[in-house]
Each structure stands twice: as structure tokens, then as C-alpha cells.
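User: Reverse transcriptase zinc-binding domain-containing protein. Structure?
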Amino acid sequence: MCTEREKGGRGVACIPLKTMAMHVAFLTKLVRGTEGHMASLFARFWIGFALRAVIPWKGTSPWSTDRPWHYQKVAEFIRGHPWCLVDGLVLDHRSLYKKWRDCWAAQTGQTHPQMPGVEWAAMQPTWLDGASKDLHWLGALRRLPVRERLYRHGISPTPLCPIGCGGEETVEHALWSCPVAARFWRWVSEWWSAEEGADTDRDLVLYGRGLKRMGPETANPLWQAVSVAKCVLWGARCECIRSQTPRVRQVDLFHVFWARLGKDAASLLSAEDGPDETCFFFLFIAGTRSASFLIGGGDRRPHLPPSLPVGAFGPAGLRSSLISTTRQGTSFGAAARRWTSFGSAARR
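Assistant: Predicted structure:
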């Protein structure tokens, strides 16, 4: 009754289709029920003509096209999917639901249209927060409420990007090709390549392609950083709509990005049963660098860590003696190993 996460689903049933399949099966069993029963007579009167292929039907039988709303929906479903009357599929809602999905996949050649090569399971790891999972999933499905889509449905007055670049706002435009997003991703890619050597490109950001080929020590921190960056971009876009101000300062994106990573680092440190330190304590570096923005320091460059008195705690909850070990020029691997050992000792 559901689509697996590996095939693009969420591991749960599609509620509207499941409800429709159950309703069709229930009414069909009611029509084929005991003759003379009042409920069966009313069901035959309203929906019997649409189900005449599976019940004994005479031309003199009374029926009506002026049906209640729920009977009309069932009649439209049967008329649009005549194959459901074959082999008694209409009597079993589970078989009907599965056949509907199989027919759709056979016609389109893929589980979801226009989305080949999406690594669904890699895009939605269990340790990722729900907001990031939803953003990845809806973005890959092209179901985010961007202006181009809302304009086609008559909901938005304009299809143009709310940031003010003048382009049509599609999902790819909002999360990747908008000039503001392009500059932001260029900076994130340069930072990550310098730290770890892995590149971020369009296919990885939008569809998670390439995550399966990486080991968890590389893929997990990379995807965490990409998830935070996508949430920052989407939040900036939504803020432009709320404030009716089509302008985003690039430095503000950097501030929020480091602050979010610093917050995640602090939450991972305080969690009792957090994820594997070797995969995720790379956030310590981001946490130290975000502190310069959280304390309102004068250094506006987004790549330099702050200077704090020894023994003091920064706003991200990280001690300055640890911050001083990750100054500019310290390699990512060395800092991650130091932070991993500290995190293991703190948990013990």
C-alpha cells in the first residue's frame, strides 16, 4: 500500500489514493451485496450503471446520473480507469491500489515522472531533521510552492523570482540557478572543496546524485552542510515574500549558514544518543566560525573563526580552548579527529 523510500516515497501510503481505492471497493461490495437490502438498492441506483460490467445488469434497471458527491467521484474514477473492472480488481482495494501504481509506472517508465536518477534513500537519512527531509523530498519531486507553479494554478500574481533577479522562479531556479543562490553555492563549494576535497554540483544538491558512491564519513557531513545551505536559501526566499522586499544580502546568508551549523554542532554535543562522532563532529569547525557572527564581532569575513578568552564559552556552546585549535590553516581532518576524541571523552 505504500512506496518505499528507495523508490521516491516516504514509506507511507498515498492517503488520497488509498482512501479512493477503499471507497471504490466498499461501494462495489455493497452493490454486489444481498439483493433487496436498502443500502444495496440505493448503491445500485446511483453507481450500478458504472459497475454494470461486474454485476448482473438489465436495461430496465433504474439508475441516475444525478448522484451524491462521493458516488460521483467513484463513477469518475471508474470511467477514467476502466482496467479496474478486470479480474475483480475493484473488489480488493489493496490490489486496486497496487495495479494503479503499476500502470502509472509502466506508462511513464519511472516511479515519478521526470525524475530519473534521484537517490531517494541517500537524500533522506534517518539522522536528518524533518524540515530538511521535506525540503529535499519536495524539491526532487518539483512540488515546492515556487511562484512559477503557483502562477500556473492562478494562486500567485507573478511567476518571477521574489528575490528580484527577474527570472522565472522554478524549483531549480530557487535552489540553484538564481544569481544569489549561484554565488552562495559557489562559496559553499569552494569552502567545502578546500576543507574536504569533495565538490558540490547541481545534481548532488537537487537530487543527491553521487552520495551513494561516497563513504559515510564523507557523504554524511557533506549532506548535512548541503541541507543547511538549502534551508538557508529557501528561508531567505520566503522572508523576501513575507517582507515584500526583493533583496537578499549575500553576507546575511553566510551569517545564517554558520549560525545554523553552529547550532547543530551544539545540539549534537548535548544529545545523549547523537549520531556517530566520526561522521558529524565536523560541525565543530562551523560552530567556531559562526561564533564571530553570533557575538556581533567586527570581522565580516565568513571564513575566519573568532578570538575568545581562554576558558570562555562561545554562543554556540563551544569552549574557546577548543576554538583556538581550529584557527585558519588547520586542516579539516585534523580538527575533526581532535573534536571526535573530545566528544567521545565528554560523553564518557
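The radius of gyration is 27 Å. The chain has two domains: 5-108, 120-347.
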